[in-house]
Amino acid sequence: MALELRQQLKLAQQLVMTPQLQQAIKLLQLSRLELLETVQQEMLDNPFLEESSGDDAVDPAAQSERRDGVEEEVYDKELAKDASWEDYLGEFASTPRLVQPREFEAAEEISPLEARYAAKPTLEGHLLWQLRLSTLTDAQKEIGEVIIGNLASSGYLQATLEEIAEMTMSTPDEVRTVLERVQFFDPIGVAARDARECLLIQLKSLNYDRDPILLELVQSHLEDLEAKRYKPLLRKFKLDMEELKEYLDIIQSLDPLPGASFGGGEPTYVSPDVFVYKMGAEFIILLNEDGLPQLQLSSLCHMDMGPSSDKEKEYCAEKMRSASWLIKSLYQRQRTLYKVVESIVRHQQPFFEDGVTKLAPLILKDIADDIGMHESTVSRITTNKYVATPHGIFELKFFFNSGLELDDGSQVGSESVKALIKKFIADEDPKAPLSDERIGEMLKDRLKVNIARRTVAKYRTALDIPSSSRRKEHF
């Protein structure tokens, strides 16, 4: 078989992901804080991009007279009008621009700066502060520093007395003396070796160590109390249930993890992208643009730079094109976000009226069909975005949930079912907790929905609620 070269012409369609399109897609899925960082970085990298002061907006007519041939392809009249975002909020808000700025501002948002920012104390720093204020000698304080340095995040001591004695060139008895002082620092019970010692220290601090039954329960029967094996304890100590319950109330008031309140895990603070307020019978949607720069093309675009090489002209054209596309992409991002939230409010109006128990089933396709966009666009714009509602702050993904078929042919959202399960269990009798089967019957009576026991168990597990046997109190 002979090999030969042959030329062929072939027509085909394909989608080319240009850098500008990739940038627009990336902006859609950025969170609010990530968007601010991206815009600030672009302003540093692009000399033709600057922040508008709001009162120095450039006249679009004057801009059009200064354009040369290169600018014509990257900076049209429509963009010049949109480059200043002075009127941007009025276009995408549900109310006129003049009534927006302060009318809907929540009281908690007007807190002073010092009330919002404060250094979080650490367990080690809190204990060292008490150690330096104590009456211990300098040598004992050195031992105390080593003890504090060997504490776990829970507050328990991770080293033995012998190991600490070796590190401080002292004796185990000297270490024990300092350890007993540290264990009564705030929080009481810190530097204990195990849970029993921690609870015993707290009992001693509260002067409960004079009760031998209480001490015996903590020293030898914590596992029985955890497993709710009460009958053997009643026989052993000759108690009735009311007396045992009094002891249990005391033990449950103690803190087995004294260092947990100083945990190293920092809370995650959420800045809502959108605010939804109720005004009369209508809901008002406001985009959160606090801190977001109002971008415009720099005045450098219209300056005569004099003779320049083709490479310099190409660089300037590319940077102007990039700046123009970023402004358009930000405009499109905010426009898409507003349309998606507006559609969600329409579909989930019972939720915004009455809360999570009225959350309706919703999928991405419902919103995509409503606003005329692709499902992937809706998925990207709802990623890492949060909305402040009259019932709290929720991620936009929260509003998309599966549905359960009701007897009348309608549907109810799975999140609504979970909220009802949580409410039923919160109101149950601790001595006779509701079984999954009973919860299913209550859901059928309330919602007219046939839900299997295993489905109730699945939702209960998702809510991190134990089974009825583990919730039961033997009193």
UniProtKB/TrEMBL annotation:
One Gene Ontology CC term in the entry: DNA-directed RNA polymerase complex
Claim: Ribosomal protein is one of the keywords in the record: no
Domain RNA polymerase sigma factor 54 DNA-binding: 314-472
One term of GO molecular function: sigma factor activity
Gene3D superfamilies: Homeodomain-like (1.10.10.60), RNA polymerase sigma-54 factor, core-binding domain (1.10.10.1330)
Gene Ontology BP, a term: DNA-templated transcription initiation
Name of this protein: RNA polymerase factor sigma-54
Organism taxonomic ancestry: Bacteria, Pseudomonadati, Thermodesulfobacteriota, Desulfovibrionia, Desulfovibrionales
Gene name, Swiss-Prot/TrEMBL: rpoN
